[in-house]
Amino acid sequence: MSTPLLELDKVQKHYKSNRSSFLGKPSYVKAVNSVSLRLFEGETLGLVGESGSGKSTTGQIIAQLISQTSGTVFYKGSDVTTFTNKQMKAWRKKVQIVFQDPYASLNPKKKIEWIVSEPLVIHRIRTKVERREKVVEVLEDVGLDASYLHRYPHELSGGQRQRVAIATAIILNPEFIVIDEGVSALDVSVQAQILNLLKQLQNKYKLTYLFISHDLNVIQYFCDRIAVMYLGEIVEQGRTDLIGSNLKHPYAQALFSANPTVDENKTQIVLGGEVPNSGTPPAGCPFHPRCAKAMETCSSFKPSDVHLNQTHVVRCHLYKTIEGNSKDTIEEAIR
Amino acid sequence: MKKHNIFKSIPLIIGVSFVTVLTIMMLVSLFYTPYSPNAMDPSDRLAQPSFTHLFGTDNFGRDIFSRVMQGSQTAFLIGFSAVSIGLFFGFLIGACAGYFGGWIDELSMRIIDAMMALPGILFAIMLISVFETGIRNTIIALGIMSIPSFARIVRSGFIQVKQFDFVKASIAKGAGSFRIIFQHILPNVTSPILVAVTLSFSGSVLAEAGLSYLGLGVQPPDPSWGRMLKEAQPFMSTAPWYVILTGLFITFMVLGFNLLSDGIRDLQDKKS
Amino acid sequence: MSQPLLSVQNLDVSFTFQDGDYAALKNISFSVYPKEIVGIVGESGCGKSLTSHAILGMLPTNAMIKKGSIQYRGTDLVSLTNEEWQSIRGSAISMIFQEPMTSLNPLLTIGRQISEVLKKHTGFCNKEIKEMTIALMKEVGLPRAEELYRAYPHQLSGGMRQRVVIAIALIGEADLVIADEPTTALDVTIQLQILELFRKLKQTRNTSLVFISHDWGVIRKVCDRVIVMYAGHIVEEGPIEEILQHPKHPYTQGLIQSIPDYKKRGEPLHTIPGRVPALRERRGGCPFVDRCSLRMDICQTTYPEGKKHGNHQVKCHLYAQEAINI
Fold this sequence. Notes:
In chain A, 47% of the residues are buried. Chain A is α/β, with parallel strands linked by helices and 335 residues long. Chain A has a single domain (6-334), classed as Rossmann fold (3-Layer(aba) Sandwich). Chain A starts with 5 loop residues before the first strand and ends with a strand. Chain A has helices spanning 55-62, 85-92, 112-122, 128-141, 158-170, 188-205, 216-222, 250-258, and strands at residues 6-16, 28-39, 44-48, 70-75, 78-79, 95-98, 176-180, 208-213, 225-230, 233-239, 306-307, 313-314, 319-320, 333-334. Chain A is globular. Chain A is built from eight helices and 14 strands. Chain B contains ten helices and no strands. Chain B has helices spanning 2-8, 10-31, 64-100, 102-117, 120-130, 135-162, 165-172, 177-213, 225-232, 240-271. Chain C folds into two domains: 6-92 and 174-269, Rossmann fold; 103-173, no CATH class. In chain C, 32% of the residues lie in helices and 24% in strands. Chain C is built from eleven helices and 13 strands. In chain C, a hairpin with a 2-residue loop joins strand 1 (6-17) and strand 2. In chain C, helix 4 packs across helix 6 (158-171). The longest helix of chain C is centred in the middle third of the chain and has 18 residues, at 188-205.
């Protein structure tokens, strides 16, 4: 297998939470707990999960907007966490992030030309005149035109703002874009426009996407592979076509079955209870209090990753890797 | 649309007109006053307002209108300089605390808390009595007094704007701290700072008047509204216009800047 | 069919701005029958929420009902005074909002907030009220009801808060509940729990529900009938499965086709060009004309009449000939 474009190796992010008493020991919220991921060039990985699952934190660690507590982020085989400031600035040209809320992701006091050309200014690329040409070119790429140059963000609709946000992300010719709930705030018809645009840009510029979303319909349509997060852990990852009948983790099964769709009738698994507070996660498997198939071991031991085949990994006691076949096991063993 | 809003806000209209009239008066006084502000005319003491002396004369026969005009210079000078000192240091402290957070924030905010625990006017009196009275020390005292409020406003603005996605997006594109602070955060915190500036201006004018009234502020021969008020006090019954007119100008100044800040706040509420 | 519980007829609502009046709702007519869940679906700015606020007499101060009637059990609500309307809200018709946190008072206990209506409008003693409240809390699926009775909103998770809001809406024995995006702020697994609860309440309490959402999947899960709104107009109405399988209006067709799903992988999604016109940009003719790929000359000038095809109704010139005029 070729070197992944981006790899997360056992990444953790712990936040210090408020002490319960003045002299008490501070406790830690494990927002991201031992997350390992690989992304290959040109693919789209969907990171799914409910609120508090740590999917946004993972995205921001990948973009190095927040630093991880432990673990490593590799980009094309080199360790991003050891970069010097200069290397980091050069690396930032290649990795971009697009946020959910198109009303908060553009500086309200600046005009569109300023906003879109900012990355060029930061990296001192081209002269002022050439910059404008490039800005117009990129605006046309995202379906806008030169007439937007002198407008302010508040004069634009939600969809147009998201196009501008995408323009700022692609102007440096990046290789990798984290899309953090990038279409969740948009109406269906506008969302379809933006998804089509993202696909077009991916084909045109050979982009790799990490697509973070809670919208399961969008994930299923848009992504090649999916990773399902629950309470800071990736409980299952694999190809998108697993969805339907081949998901293995009880949480992933319940999550996708709970998604209301417009065209199929399926048996829905109604999960009891709610996602526990990530400050006080349950011992053992984080999902066991809500899991219908929970066993005794689940409440005391943390399951480790089970490689069912080359792409399909599940973190659950129900399955186990056949000895000696750790990463390439194709058969699954069900207890 | 924008213009429309400005004319709809009545406090803003009144505030702007008060401040404009006072500013014009101050500017004119730099070149021209009807009489020399310090010229005494013993033959014409405590004269009533008339066409020769618009606001009458004081107990030394000096033209009150000329002295009020001259006094506006002092008021503006003190307001402007004190606010500049307060804004400069307050911004520096607040911006660092808000942007960097952590122990820098913790340390600077405790210092600000300590400053705020001391009543401002008492602090100014202490400072002035330790050093010496005069315009310069009054300005320094009032300036230091206004640092905490600026620091707090700037800090909370910075903390608020710092977590917006456009700031994160810019960091992800490689922007440095300098760019983030001056291009992204600053333009988005100007309105609350502007409100604080106008409010602090009127506060400083009032504090100067108070200090000078107590004899701790501006010393003769520099004219000051606060001291004029003190000088007018003994003649309250014989020449009431002296007290009333001088007091009226202090009121105009303070009211003008307060209304201005109210108006700015209204405008910014409407926008958001 | 039985008498409708709620009947809205030719309702027009306008906003007054400095430069004139702008119609935000035009010709809204629909009925809700007892024990029925009616969905209102559409994109933002199409008037879904405004319709619900009009029914509850909670329009913003610069909006007003220009014409039409809103009848609840035969009483016209439009002519009611504020006090009369207030007594209907909470007892006969109640409302559930999207954000459960902002619709609860953070300073009052859950029990007190649920029982408030009972204390105000009934003569029960405190003990009875508490028993009724706890019974209802159990009915809407709040665990450990006795304990939660004394809890405060911040101690509850999002899903539990929304159950509390539902309990508040139901305590006055309302037979019509208007829910404005009640599950949009919730996670998928919690959303399913709440949707199941709505279906159950319809069976056990005979509550009718007007369910506003932008999510067709959610609408399909709970609703019997759906109303599609666009730019302040009702463009299509009918049984949910019928509309999903055979949408007639080009807007409905476009909306349904633009929903992403697994089967559409690899091909571009259908999109509707342009966007919903702003209040000031709306003019005569069909409201959808500028974005419609099937538009004809008549669409520019004439507002389409409603056509009935059984219980499926559509307002589009494409169907002018084939159906019976109403």
